[in-house]
Design brief:
By secondary structure, this protein is α+β, with helices and mostly antiparallel strands. It has two domains: 52 residues, Orthogonal Bundle (Multidrug-efflux Transporter Regulator, Chain: A, Domain 2); 60 residues, OB fold (Dihydrolipoamide Acetyltransferase, E2P) (Beta Barrel), CATH 2.40.50. Strands 6-5-4-7-8 form a five-stranded antiparallel β-sheet. Strands 1-3-2 form a three-stranded antiparallel β-sheet. Strand 2 and strand 3 form a beta hairpin. The radius of gyration is 18 Å and the shape is elongated. This is Excisionase family DNA-binding protein. Keywords: DNA-binding, Molybdenum. It holds the Pfam family HTH_17. InterPro entries: HTH_17, Mo/tungstate-bd_C_term_dom, Mop_domain, SinI_DNA-bd, Transp-assoc_OB_typ1.
Length: 133
């Protein structure tokens, strides 16, 4: 068994330590305590991460897409200059930057604090926003 500390498990999944503790309390993860450190099994954590990637929760009217690499997070920065926009997102521990038309950024209503998803297909990053949020 690969033992992963709660803090590290939280960082790997982009959640808080308290969220990992709630998962342990709910039985989604099994905790082991030894020498004052609480850990979770790496294989169990990987299975939970895979389940969360397949079904991150939320509305049933999600966008259906062939792209499998989706990073949902908060818009942190939008820089526009005429025809182009540079949009930054903080997706858990990852920062994603996308270049798009300024028109697309305006149509999506992208501004700091907005929840959006970066969809990666091959070398292209597509930013989208749920119309209900």
């Amino acid at each position: 068994m690969v033992a992963i500390r709660i803090k590290e498990a939280a960082a790997l999944l982009g959640v808080s330590d308290d969220t990992v503790r709630r998962w342990i309390g709910a039985g989604a993860l099994t905790a082991t305590s030894a020498e004052g450190a609480t850990t979770v099994d790496g294989a169990e954590l990987a299975a939970l991460a895979a389940d969360r990637a397949r079904d991150p929760g939320g509305d049933d009217d999600r966008v259906l897409t062939s792209a499998r690499n989706r990073f949902t997070g908060l818009v942190t920065d939008v820089e526009m200059d005429g025809v182009m926009a540079k949009v930054g997102l903080q997706c858990g521990p990852f920062t994603v930057t996308s270049l798009m038309s300024a028109e697309a950024a305006r149509e999506l209503g992208l501004e700091p604090g907005v929840i959006a998803s970066a969809v990666v297909k091959a070398t292209t990053v597509i930013v989208e926003r749920d119309a209900h949020r």
